[in-house]
Request: fold
Amino acid sequence: MDLPFIKVENISYSYKGDGGVGVPVIKELSLEIREGEFVAVLGHNGSGKSTLAKLLNMIFSPQSGKIYIDGKDITAPDMTDDDVFALRKTVGMVFQNPDNQLVATIVEDDVAFGPENLSVPSEEIRKRVDEALRAVGMTKYAHHEPHRLSGGQKQRVAIAGIIAMLPKCIIFDESTAMLDPIGRREVMQTIKMLNEKMGITVIMITHYMDEAAMAGRIVVLDEGRIALDGKPSEVFEREELLRSMGLDVPQCAAIIHRLREAGVALKGDCTTPEKCAELIGRALGGEGRDV
Amino acid sequence: MKNIALGQYYPAKSPLHRLDPRIKVLLALIYICAAAFCKNIIGFGVLLVSALLIVALGRIPFKTIFRSLTPVLFVMLFAVFFQVFFTKGDMLLFAWWKLQIYGEGLYLALFTIVRIFTLIIGTSMFLTYTTTPIELTYAIEDLLSPLKKLKVPVHDFAMMMTLALRFIPTLVEEADKIMTAQKARGADFSTGSLVQRAKALKPVLIPLIVSAMRHAVELAVAMECRCYHGDGTRMVVRKCRFSDIAALIVMIIFLAGIIYLNILGLVYTA
Ligand SMILES: Nc1ncnc2c1ncn2[C@@H]1O[C@H](COP(=O)(O)OP(=O)(O)O)[C@@H](O)[C@H]1O
Ligand SMILES: [Mg+2]
Reply:
């Protein structure tokens, strides 16, 4: 059987509400993600993004439907504890608040936490910690106390803690939401590096359109269902639909959209300001001119 | 507020840093016993030399050590004062009005200083300076693991200690933020009676507790995602190396030597 890396089939999930009545949050959702993809997940507050992430990590199990990850049916009733650990090793998760993910008082101890829980031999842990810290550019801070680091640095330590478990996929649940612009840039660069250089499948939940534009694919969630799924340029074309779901469109995509509506012929995709300037420049007649 | 020191781990590459943390806990305990049992002037000399040797082995600058000693200077002075002025003996050195100073008092004062000094050097060199807090909790967990047979949740306590240490600065920072926010709304934390001031803290404590709960829930999920399983089956057992065992043997011989000196009763015993 040739399964994609992640295959979600018709899953539904509801939280226990008051008086035992379930509040449906994920509704018959299906999704496929191939190995090595960089997928951004958009959706307004409460659309079920975090819940979906936690379902992929078996923090919750869906009430109906199936989830296959890396060739294994993680919704099978015969999942053992070891299977769950193996899954969480394969699919790591980085959250929003960096403070609530760091468990140790020294950076390198924190990075070692995951491998230690997985009973990795100590020489191997040493190696993985060094490599993970190098990958996120935090080697210099190995002996620092996390609470003295900046938000972006803490978040990179949290990422190193996941890398040290050697995951195939990492889910970022609004991991840049609490950071200042510098921290955001640091973390975004790290995420891109993970995907491009280390071949890790990235699922990035975010609120920022410019971050989503960096992904290879965007999935938009609305009320527990997938409303849009496609390349950034395709998704951002649907400006009205996005706005009706309480989402924005990156400024450059909005400009191109409006220009096209006004009858200006613009060919090609546009998700970044540079690309946007290039397209407009070309439309103004300057063949490949520097803009 | 970001500058709270958690323990005082001093990163360096030294023989003491490399020792197994469990061995270091044992070394500290034995060293404390040696300092406490010592009653003999030669013994105190040996203790003093050993303390300096340990500092050298840990490659910690004396300035750092001295800074950790300053808080106890007061205690030392206090002890010295009492022993110099209130010890009675046979060797009267100085008398004026009701004040009498005996040789024994001076001896005792000197011994007390050496004893406190070595106690602090012993614990801080073996435990706080050369061992990270998390290594320390793991070590204590390992050493107490026989209690697991009696169903004492040793691992859970060790984990709680680690997390408490980790979250002190986070919560302090948050308390600071909440207090600033309340002050901006006109709260007054620094005047009024004790009761009034305690009452003024209520609007700080309640948000702080709520946020601590939120931290706890999120942290629990994050720990689960990193494959934490609270049943204490940490398999990563660090094996003691030859140097660890050697250090332990040297320390036991050291304790035996101190006790032997006591038995010999050389020179003066307090
Ligand atoms: N632990 C919970 N118990 C009950 N309801 C919850 C819980 N967590 C989230 N919800 C509800 O589920 C919905 C989706 O939440 P979530 O997945 O966190 O959305 P998002 O991450 O997209 O903002 C929201 O309406 C939220 O109120
Ligand atoms: Mg969320």
